[in-house]
C-alpha cells in the first residue's frame, strides 16, 4: 500500500524574495530536504524518486526540466541523471578570477570576531578553487585582521591556520577580560575647589602671581584679566591712574611696584571677611580709580545689631561706638557723632569714592 505524501514546500526559482546569486545554494538545501524525506518514507525505487522529485519541486522546476533534451532528462528510472541536470542548470557560471578578487578584498570588520571572519573567508574561498585553502585563508587573516598583536605574532613565528585562530581567540578573550576589570576599577570623581574671599585688587594681583608660576593660567599684561580676550583688550585706549600712560590699567602698572605691594598687603588682611563685593566684568569698563576706598557698610548703627561693636575714645574726646571692620580701608564717622565731638577740624571736599565690599 502506497504511503501518502506529506506537504512539501516547492523550490522557488523566481520570486520577489529570492536572489539569483543564491539559487545554487538554495537548490542544494532543498535537494537535501527531499532526500531526507525519501529516507523517512522508505522510498528507494529510483523511478518513484524521479517522479516525486519533478512533482514536489514545483511548477517552475517542472517547466525548466521540460526544456531539457532527452539525454539530459534520462530514462524514467534514471533519478541520478535528472538530479545532475537540474543541479548543473542552477549552478551559476563561475568566474574564478572574480571569485579570487572578492576573497582578496575581504577584511575583518572592527566589531567582527575572528571566528566569524574565518567563517566568512572560508565561504568566499569555496568558489576560488585554491590548491591550499587553509594557507590562503591564513595569509588573508594575517594581512587584514584588526589585531596588530596577532599580526606581529604571526610574522615572528611560523604558525598553521589552526594555531593562528587559537592565538587570536586567546588575545580576544584576554582583551575582553582586561576591559571588564578596568571598567570596574574606574571611578569618576568630582572635585570642588574653594578659594579665599578677596576683593577686586587682591584677586587680580594674586591671579597675576599664580599666572607667573602656572603655565595654564595666563593674564593680560595690560588689564590683568584672563588672556586671550574674546575681543579687544579692555585697557586699550585707557589711561593709567598711577603713571598717566595709555593702554594699561593701574592694577597692571609696573611703574609703581611699592604701591602695588601696599595694596596687596591690604587685600591680604581682608581675606577672612565674610562679605564680598561682586565684580561684574565688561569690555567697556575702565579700571578702578586709585582714589577708591572700601568699607564693610555705610549705615546707622543701632543697639540691636549683631555685628561686633566697640567703644573708642577719639583724641581724648567723647567715646564713639564703632563696628569692628578689619577689612575696611577707611574709618567712617556719623555726622551726629562728629558734631558731638566738636573737634577743631575743618571739613574739606574729597575726591575719594567709598564702596561697600
TrEMBL record:
Domain of life: Eukaryota
Residues in Paraneoplastic antigen Ma-like C-terminal domain copies: 24-154
InterPro entries registered for this protein in UniProt: Peptidase_aspartic_dom_sf (IPR021109), PNMA_C (IPR048270)
Coiled-coil annotated residue ranges, if any: none
Leader peptide range in chain numbering: none
Protein name (record): PREDICTED: uncharacterized protein K02A2.6-like
Amino acid at each position: 500500500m502506497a504511503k501518502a505524501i506529506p506537504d512539501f514546500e516547492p523550490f522557488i526559482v523566481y520570486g520577489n524574495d529570492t536572489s539569483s546569486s543564491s539559487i545554487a545554494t538554495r537548490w542544494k538545501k532543498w535537494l537535501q530536504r527531499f532526500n531526507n524525506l525519501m529516507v523517512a518514507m522508505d522510498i528507494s525505487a529510483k523511478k518513484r524518486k524521479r517522479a516525486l522529485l519533478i512533482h514536489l519541486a514545483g511548477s517552475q522546476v517542472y517547466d525548466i526540466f521540460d526544456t531539457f533534451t532527452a539525454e539530459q532528462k534520462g530514462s524514467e528510472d534514471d533519478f541520478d541523471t535528472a538530479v545532475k541536470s537540474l543541479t548543473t542548470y542552477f549552478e551559476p557560471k563561475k568566474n574564478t578570477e572574480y571569485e579570487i578578487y572578492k576573497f582578496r578584498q575581504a577584511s575583518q570588520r572592527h566589531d567582527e570576531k575572528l571566528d566569524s571572519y574565518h567563517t566568512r573567508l572560508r565561504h568566499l574561498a569555496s568558489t576560488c578553487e585554491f590548491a591550499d585553502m587553509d594557507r590562503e585563508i591564513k595569509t588573508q587573516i594575517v594581512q587584514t585582521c584588526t589585531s596588530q598583536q596577532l599580526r606581529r605574532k604571526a610574522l615572528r613565528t611560523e604558525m598553521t591556520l589552526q594555531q593562528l585562530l587559537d592565538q587570536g581567540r586567546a588575545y580576544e578573550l584576554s582583551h575582553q577580560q582586561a576591559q571588564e576589570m578596568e571598567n570596574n576599577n574606574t571611578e569618576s570623581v568630582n572635585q570642588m575647589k574653594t578659594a579665599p574671599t578677596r576683593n577686586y585688587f587682591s584677586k587680580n594681583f594674586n591671579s597675576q602671581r599664580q599666572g607667573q608660576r602656572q603655565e595654564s593660567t595666563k593674564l593680560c599684561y595690560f588689564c590683568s584679566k584672563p588672556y586671550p580676550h574674546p575681543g579687544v583688550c579692555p585697557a586699550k585706549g585707557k589711561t593709567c591712574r598711577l603713571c598717566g600712560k595709555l593702554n594699561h590699567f593701574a592694577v597692571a602698572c609696573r611703574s609703581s611696584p611699592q604701591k602695588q605691594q601696599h595694596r596687596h598687603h591690604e587685600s591680604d588682611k581682608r581675606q577672612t571677611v565674610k562679605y564680598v563685593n561682586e565684580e561684574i566684568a565688561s569690555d567697556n569698563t575702565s579700571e578702578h580709580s586709585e582714589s577708591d576706598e572700601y568699607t564693610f557698610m555705610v549705615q546707622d548703627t543701632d543697639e540691636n545689631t549683631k555685628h561686633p561693636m566697640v567703644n573708642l575714645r577719639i583724641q581724648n574726646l567723647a567715646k564713639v561706638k564703632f563696628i569692628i571692620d578689619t577689612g575696611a580701608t577707611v574709618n567712617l564717622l556719623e555726622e551726629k557723632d562728629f558734631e558731638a565731638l566738636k573737634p577743631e577740624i575743618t571739613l574739606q571736599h574729597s575726591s575719594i569714592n567709598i564702596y561697600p565690599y
